[in-house]
Automatic annotation (TrEMBL):
Residues 11-156 form the Flavin reductase like domain. Keywords: Oxidoreductase. The keyword Oxidoreductase applies. It comes from Billgrantia pellis. Pfam families: Flavin_Reduct (PF01613). This is Flavin reductase family protein.
Length: 168
């Protein structure tokens, strides 16, 4: 039997970016969750995957509406990451966002985002493995560092990963 806490510690040793996945309920209300389980799947067609908890408020909305957005958070958005990491509807209060031309909830201040339509979802234990087809994407200014997560802490890119003035 695998100890849950030890399992989390081992997985937490893998540095990853921090994303927030958002969707809009049929009544236009925002739902979302913080996800480090985000990955590219395919270039043609452009597919990504996310892994929402089966018990989240967001997963049923994504299944019903067939659309969602994945935001790669900026290093200054730790508070947003922590807000979306908890359960409850009040987590979205005070979060700056707007509706895109495609009807998705877009968080202000992200480094980049991808707007997706539900391609497929698969069982994955206590989570779902959701594959989304990228419909639209946006990349902000390279000077805005993404938010990283490792060993239970969030921070910005180390200097060794920043663009040098000669390549910027």
């Amino acid at each position: 039997m695998i100890d849950t806490q030890h399992y989390k510690q081992v997985l937490g040793a893998f540095p990853t970016g921090v994303t927030v996945v958002t969707a809009l309920n049929e009544d236009g209300s925002l739902v979302g969750f913080t996800a480090s389980a985000f990955s590219a799947v395919s270039m043609a067609p452009p597919l990504i995957l996310i892994c929402p908890s089966l018990g989240s408020d967001s997963y049923p909305v994504i299944k019903r509406t067939g659309r969602f957005a994945v935001h790669i958070l900026g290093h200054d958005q730790q508070a947003v990451a922590y807000r979306f990491a908890v359960k409850g509807r009040d987590k979205v209060e005070g979060v700056a966002w707007h509706r895109s031309e495609h009807g998705n909830a877009i968080l202000d201040g992200a480094t980049a985002y991808l707007e997706c339509r539900l391609w497929e979802d698969y069982p994955g234990g206590d989570h779902a493995i959701v594959v989304g087809e990228v419909q639209t994407l946006w990349l902000g200014d390279d000077r805005l560092d993404p938010l990283l997560y490792c060993r239970g802490k969030m921070d910005k890119l180390p200097d060794t990963f920043r663009l040098s003035p000669a390549t910027a």
